[in-house]
Amino acid sequence: MSDTATLLTRRAQLLGPNMTTFYDDPVHIVRGEGTWLWDADGNRFLDCYNNVPHVGHAHPKVVQAITDQAATLNTHTRYLHEGILDYGERLTATMGNDLDTMIMVCTGSEANDIALRMGRAVTGKTGIICTDNTYHGNTDLVSHLSAKKTPIGGAVDWVRKVPSPDAIEPLGGSHEAQAQAFADEIQTAINALEADGHGFGTLILCPFFANEGFPDLPKGFLDPTVDVVRRAGGIIIADEVQPGFGRTGRNFWGHERIGLVPDIVTMGKPMGNGHPVAAVVTRPEIMAEFRNRFGYFNTFGGNPVSAAAAMAVLDVLEEEQLVENARDTGDYALGLLGQLDHPMIADVRGAGLFLGVEFARDGNTEAAADFCAKLVDDMRHRGVLLHSVGRHYHGIKIRPPMCFDCAQADFLVETLDDALKALPV
Amino acid sequence: MSDTATLLTRRAQLLGPNMTTFYDDPVHIVRGEGTWLWDADGNRFLDCYNNVPHVGHAHPKVVQAITDQAATLNTHTRYLHEGILDYGERLTATMGNDLDTMIMVCTGSEANDIALRMGRAVTGKTGIICTDNTYHGNTDLVSHLSAKKTPIGGAVDWVRKVPSPDAIEPLGGSHEAQAQAFADEIQTAINALEADGHGFGTLILCPFFANEGFPDLPKGFLDPTVDVVRRAGGIIIADEVQPGFGRTGRNFWGHERIGLVPDIVTMGKPMGNGHPVAAVVTRPEIMAEFRNRFGYFNTFGGNPVSAAAAMAVLDVLEEEQLVENARDTGDYALGLLGQLDHPMIADVRGAGLFLGVEFARDGNTEAAADFCAKLVDDMRHRGVLLHSVGRHYHGIKIRPPMCFDCAQADFLVETLDDALKALPV
Predict the structure, then answer these.
(1) Which residue, among B299, B305, B313, B377, would best test binding to A if mutated, counting the most A CBs under 10 Å from its CB?
(2) Min distance A49 CA to chain B CA atoms (Å)
(3) Does A158 contact B at CB distance below 8 Å?
(4) What mean pLDDT comes out for the span A216-240?
(5) Which of A238, B141, B174, B284 is 20 to 30 A from B340, comparing alpha carbons?
(6) Degrees (nearest 5) of the Cα angle B16, B18, B23?
């Protein structure tokens, strides 16, 4: 058997069915550095997809921080340690709006599981609203918000899903009308939750609507939504797992970019450059309400090594000016993508180093998921790692480590151009 | 302000209220090595409590494994990698009974959250039974099993809590009668869940009953319980977060020790020596049922660094014969503890390096939690870190890193003897 076949067999036996791999020919990655990955045969891939290695694969400063702290001490927060405090104070200083208390956990799922319970604790209501094409994690509670994975036990009626902005056309091209239509959908869901006796407690959304295909939305788009939620006495969670930590180039947080002031912010994936660390940040009164009602303690949460890894990520972001790089390289790449000439390109959009190209047939009316899947596979064989995104998986998601540079953007777009020319439409 | 006061103030501001620290005078730990910890003033403490640094604080082999892998590659399981496979095959080889499929996650809470959903997926029933003095984690779902922390939203009636064995006296000294009484309690809970329309799906327990004060129970104690659960078509989860990985000295798993064959095994804390890693192990048909119904994916779960950390723990356990050490040093320490002479010592018990001394007044009838708390604080000032355990927190829990040696056992028991002589009864 080939190496790949052997590994797939071992995976199926050990991990069970439905353990999806990327690509028709799964990649056996053995090494990473910066924006590059190498497979077991020595083939090199430009990583245009992975946001977890935020400051670059195997970044030496993050590795050193983890090593130094692991060699010194790793223990829990029943003892005093500066690590969690130094990190949390620096993290929350990026936010303002009284968002200055924090719980550190290990995964974005754990963060959202807590955030939703904070919403319940503060409002006393169980009703949750999310979009109809989202993903916020995989605990039992959070899995009820997923659009594409039916939770064990089936759907619950205290979660209501509203059409996300990508599914609401700007009426007459007006973002104001689209923003109001989105808020109206939320009002309708609030009314339904109240009528069914659950009450409305919490709206959770990714402020970049990343899984929804990150439609272009102007600053202030969520203002009518905020009004509706505030009038109903609800809480807003901004899930920053994808747009956070400068990914979109001009703002450190996705909620700043869209002009939203959330009550609770959750974060995960990029926070420790791959080390399992995540967090919930909120205002002191929400934290107090939650913590006084439930004495949350997480053994691994905020341990000195996790704090050191997360701190090193903030250091590298600053030292290497990676948010600025996301802005400049992102603008450059977006410009190049906009010059691609192909009949099925329906849209090119994004912000910073979170970009996408959408494909459709028949004059932009039929989402071309099959074409997009073939393109992603073809690009893998050309040495560029991408993946699909959006309601119909008809867009490619370009979301490389933040050290992605203009030469790499050139290589990506040239390769994409070659692939598009070679693929039957 | 003193260093401690400053840190406590910063904690309160950043982390919110109800962030408990151990001891009247919280310890500011800055360094660890083996079984020793040092505070910021250079004071050394013998760590007789922490099970997370399983093979010893800052073990160089684990640190090296983490460093080497983090410097090479850290990514997720949508790509192929040997790390998770090599580890999972080795881990499941310790179990037998067809327990040979695995999901890797980041915390014991995540593991139990999945395990409970596996029980639901397989049985189609929502009812869960646990003991009335347990703790299995802190996600929304798992928090409903906690005896001492009321979940947000209050208790749910699809969780039933049975008196744990420590609360059931061996009738006429007979463990058989006690075992049957425990099984009878579970049968009563099953009947109630069925009557209330939830149905009975899953029994979850720590096979060492660690949070219940680890009462001395013979092998086979759970046989009547297993009969009752099997007759009702239920699933049994063994939560090995505390007794697993050889902690009890004569068995690698707590369920082996008590002679239980569980359907699902969960593990966490000691698995990566402090690195956030945890796992669920089960039989292939249960895994398939769960994974086919819910396409679980955990970004950090089973990443190469976590797998390397966990693998290094298994390596060190073998190379340093730490399970054998837990048996021998544990026996030695238990013998010494048994020789302590104090009117309030009600019981001395445990297995391997999981030992306890219970305190009571009035001829063993009144649990002496206050005395125990004072003793724990006093020992901290004498340089030995312990904590309390049990239904009334009237026992001290002795659960040091697995490299604890006989000289350290001597120091522990001598110090305990001094403290007991000095403390007013």
Answers:
(1) B299
(2) 12
(3) no
(4) 98
(5) B174
(6) 120
Report residue B362's pLDDT band, with 50, 70 and 90 as the boundaries.
confident
| Topology match between the domains A3-55+321-422 and A60-319 | no
Which of B31, B70, B303 has the CB atom closest to A63's CB atom? B70
Chain B contact for A266, CB < 8 A?
no
Which residues fall within 8 angstroms of residue B351, CB to CB, at 6 or more apart?
B208, B214, B248, B249, B250, B257, B330
- Evaluate the CA torsion angle A76, A79, A85, A86 in order and state its sign: negative
Task: State the DSSP string of B134-170.
Answer: -----SHHHHTT-SSSPPTT---TTEEEE--GGGS--
1.20.1560.10, 3.30.43.10, 3.40.640.10, 3.40.50.410: CATH of A60-319: 3.40.640.10
For A185-199, B118-132, B291-305, B358-372, which range has the lowest pLDDT when averaged over its residues? B358-372
Residue A328 has a pLDDT of: 98
Residue contact B294–A37, C-beta within 8 A = no
Strands (E), A293-420: 345-351, 354-361, 366-367, 384-385, 387-389, 395-398
Does B74 touch chain A if contact means CB atoms closer than 8 Å? yes
pLDDT at B363 over 80: no
Partners of A67 on chain B (C-beta within 8 Å) are 63, 66-67, 70
Q: Is A273 on the interface with B (CB under 8 A)?
A: yes
How many A/B residue pairs have CB atoms within 8 Å? Answer: 314
Kindly report whether the global pTM for this prediction surpasses the value 0.95.
Answer: yes
Q: What does the pLDDT look like over B39-77, one tens digit per residue?
A: 999 999 999 999 999 999 999 999 999 999 999 999 999
Tell me which residue of B273, B279, B275 sits closest to B305, measured CA to CA: B275
Q: How many residues does chain B have?
A: 425
Give the largest CA-CA distance in chain A: 63
Residue closest to A234 by CA, chosen among A118, A95, A86: A118
**pLDDT at residue B81 in the model:** 97
* Residue extents of the structural domains in chain A: 3-55+321-422, 60-319
> What's the longest Cα–Cα distance across chain B?
63
pLDDT at A172 over 70: yes
* Sheet strands (E) in A179-250: 200-205, 235-239
pLDDT in tens, A27-39: 999 999 999 999 9
Which residue of A74, A80, A291 is in closest CB contact with B26? A80
Whether B37 and A73 lie within 8 Å, measured CB to CB: yes
B110 to A108: CB separation less than 8 angstroms, yes or no: no
- CB contact (8 A) between residue A32 and residue B151: no
CA distance B391 to B389: 7
Contact A383, A243 (CB under 8 A): no
B90 touches chain A (CB under 8 A): no
Judged by CB atoms closer than 8 Å, whether chains meet at B17 and A292 is answered as: yes
Residues 128-147 of A with CB under 8 A from B: 138-141, 143
Q: Kindly list the residues from chain A whose CB atom is less than 8 angstroms away from the CB atom of residue B78.
A: 20-22
Q: Which of A200, A378, A232, A104 is nearest to B16 (CA)?
A: A104
Q: Which helix (H) or strand (E) holds A256?
A: helix A254-258
**Option in B21, B71, B288 nearest A17 (CB):** B288
The partner residue sitting opposite A79, judged by closest CB among B29, B81, B292, is: B29
CA of B133, closest CA in chain A: separation in Å?
Answer: 16
What is the distance between the alpha carbons of residues B154 and B156, in angstroms, rounded to a whole number?
7
Q: Which residue of B has its CA nearest to A86?
A: B10
Helices (H), ranges, B124-260: 140-143, 175-195, 223-231, 254-258
Classified by CATH at the fold level, domain A3-55+321-422 comes out as Aspartate Aminotransferase, domain 1 (3.90.1150)
- The answer to whether A165 and A154 have CB atoms below 8 angstroms apart is no
Average pLDDT value for chain A: 96
